[in-house]
Amino acid sequence: MSHTAHIPSHRKPRRGGSRSALRAGVAGGFLSTIAVAGASGPAHAEPVTETIEMPVLTSADLSAHVAQAAAATQEIALDAELQAQEDAAALKASKEAKKAKAEADREAEAKKKAEEKARAEAAEAAAAQERASRSTERTTLSTTASTASAPSSQTASAPASGSAGTVVAFLKAQLGDAYVMGASGPNAWDCSSLVQAAFRQVGIDLPRVSQDQSVAGTQVGTSNLQVGDILYWGAAGSAYHVGVYIGDGKYLDAANPSKGVVIQDLSGYPATGAVRVL
């Protein structure tokens, strides 16, 4: 025994009794809980059980599944191959259609060019024929004028009968020719060169410019015109344009670059005056 055991404050407490009381309390509480639960629940509770049956796969089942999966995979592959073939066929058809269209366009363009060339050649042939016809007429007129006219030095004198018709015939043979300032034929004229060439067919040698032609013959009034009279616009001696009266209130002249050699109505553009050289 310790030498301090007789001192109360140094005695160790007895743990055995406390542990016994604690066990008793815990046990009592646990039993009380069981009793309460038993009282509140059913008198005869049966345990609930559930049985789940798991499928049993045999080797035949596995083989069937594998076969089905392989068939499905093969079908997908066939579908993909068919789709690829269809796409390739569509692409080929599209390319062939484009090629055919391009070929058709080339043929249409070639046909158009051929037609244009044919029209141009036809127009050129017609123009050449027209030029040949005019040349023939001019040759005939020149021959007639040489036979029926006075000497070429004659100025504003009266030639042989029918000279006015010869002048007008020559002028009409030039219809459609171009107007070019300073030109003197045979396919392009200005106003005064055309008048000069026309009267040269009957042996009358007129001055070259309109100012001089406006005073080359006898002045006549525009209300008393005869076929073959020279019309002028502007004052006598300073006229800026000339033409020839061909009857029925009309005259023929090399009008301007847009019209060329034409027949016009005198009422639409009245002349200032006229001179008579026939």
Summarize the structure.
With 278 residues, the protein is of the alpha+beta class. The protein contains five helices and eight strands.
Structure overview:
This protein has a domain at 149-276: endopeptidase domain like (from Nostoc punctiforme) (endopeptidase fold (from Nostoc punctiforme)). It has 278 residues and is an alpha+beta fold. Strand 5 and strand 6 (250-254) form a beta hairpin. Residues 33-41 and 144-161 have low confidence and may be disordered. It has helices at 15-40, 59-148, 163-173, 191-200, 210-213; strands at residues 178-179, 188-189, 218-220, 230-233, 241-247, 250-254, 261-265, 273-276. It has 5 helices and 8 strands, in the order αααββααββββββ. The chain has a 6-stranded antiparallel β-sheet. A two-stranded parallel sheet has the order 1-2. It is rod-shaped. Helix 3 crosses helix 4 (191-200).
Uncertain segments: 33-41, 144-161
Termini separation: 188 Å
Structural class: alpha+beta
CATH topology of the domain at 149-276: endopeptidase fold (from Nostoc punctiforme)
Radius of gyration: 65 Å
Q: Given the structure, what is the number of helices? A: 5
Summarize the helix and strand pattern as letters.
HHHEEHHEEEEEE
**How confident is the prediction overall: mean pLDDT?**
78
User: How many strands, which pairing sense, and closed or not: the largest β-sheet?
Assistant: 6 strands, antiparallel
